Amino acid sequence: MNQLSIHNPATGALITQLPADDAASVATKAAVARMAQPRWAAAPMAHRKDCISRFREAIVAQLDSLAATMTAETGKPIKMSRNELNGLL
Question: I need a surface site. Which of 39, 55, 71, 75 has the fewest CB within 10 A?
Fold first, then answer.
């Protein structure tokens, strides 16, 4: 499998390497997501709200780390990364 190299655009430093998806793996992942959607849609609203609330709490708990990663990967100022994440919330 090919590797995807993530570089800091400001410094050129290699941040990490990840396996790159090919068309077949993307199609498989999309099919799995489509198969899971009816179960999610059938879940009670209270359960779905709880899942989304827990996701939000995880973002809040990791906000500084996520913002630092976004800044390293995109070169945008840290304040802009924080604002983007806060926009999710």
Answer: 39
